[in-house]
Design goal:
Blueprint lengths: L1 H25 L4 H22 L10 H13 L4 H16 L11 H25 L2 H9 L20 H18 L3 H17 L18 H7 L16 H6 L27 H5 L17
Helix pairs in contact: 1-2, 1-8, 2-4, 2-8, 4-7, 4-8, 5-6, 5-7, 5-8
């Protein structure tokens, strides 16, 4: 089973998702309702697979880490998954009446422009949050580092994020979708794929996607992004690595997983389970912590 999951599960899931999405559009179904079923179905399926065949057991969810994730979910307005779902769901509804110039293009052309435009803004926002200098760079990093504090990466830890960072990401997402004026079918496909990759990228399962890593950001690329080793810094894309390839921040090590996850200098940060201290980071002038708490 583990061999099948490693080499075939993700490609088959990706193809099945695309086929199901295309059939849904051709059938004239309610795309908002269909999007909800896609979101629920893939979350349940991936959760079961991760529970059955985890890549690293020391990176698996524990009861303590789940309670931490739950606290972050509540802070993010009922849960990061819920907010992201709502953003995609609303975007599909608004695009239903879109009269923008791009809405008249072929759907694949709309999807390509939407994906690359979204990723361009998302890439630079994400990269500057890691590499930016000055007061703004420090502020953005301290509002983003919460997502990198956990020393284990698995499906549900995706919600560990600061509300400020989360709001910026959602603003980029919604702003690009609305600004381009693409049609509802392209927005539907875009959000279905983006939602799948957002979950797969935090998947604690051994996935070897091969050439797909040069097209879409999945488990191997984003796990490297979470490495505690600064030599692995890169992979700022969340949907496609296109701009990482263009700007030289693409990191792909097919046969090597990070030795450790988290931040390279944990003594400067609270552990991820110290919610209030983590949320206060953007507003602190100094960042030195004993960091003796056990990481969940």
């Amino acid at each position: 089973m583990s061999r099948f999951v490693r080499y075939w599960f993700y490609p088959l899931l990706l193809v099945a998702t695309l086929v199901a999405a295309i059939l849904t559009m051709r059938a004239g179904s309610d795309l908002q309702r269909a999007f909800a079923w896609f979101a629920f179905g893939r979350l349940v399926l991936l959760f079961v697979v991760e529970w059955l065949v985890p890549f690293r057991k020391e990176w698996s969810m524990t009861w303590r880490s789940f309670l931490r994730d739950l606290k972050y979910a509540v802070v993010l307005g009922g849960g990061g998954f819920a907010v992201k779902f709502a953003a995609g769901w609303l975007a599909i509804g608004v695009a239903d009446n879109s009269q923008g110039a791009l809405s008249q293009w072929p759907i694949l052309a709309q999807l390509l422009v939407l994906a690359l435009t979204y990723e361009f803004f998302q890439y630079w926002q994400h990269r500057f949050s890691h590499e930016g200098r000055g007061a703004l760079g420090r502020f953005l990093w301290r509002a983003h580092v919460q997502h990198h504090l956990p020393r284990r990466v698995y499906l549900l830890m995706h919600v560990v994020s600061h509300p400020i960072n989360f709001a910026i990401v959602m603003a980029v997402n919604i702003g690009v979708i609305y600004g381009l004026g693409v049609g509802k079918d392209a927005v539907f496909l875009f959000n279905v794929i983006l939602g799948l990759q957002g979950l797969v990228s935090h998947f604690n399962v051994q996935i070897s996607a091969g050439p797909i890593n040069y097209l879409l950001v999945g488990t191997e690329l984003h796990r490297t992004h979470h490495s505690a080793d600064l030599a692995d810094a890169g992979n700022y894309g969340v949907l496609t690595p296109f701009w990482d390839l263009v700007f030289g921040t693409f990191r792909y090590h097919p046969e090597r997983a990070p030795v450790a996850l988290g931040v390279s200098d944990p003594q400067h940060y609270p552990t991820s389970n110290r919610l209030l201290a983590a949320l206060a980071l953007p507003f602190r002038r100094t960042m030195t912590y004993a960091n003796a708490d056990e990481e969940p």
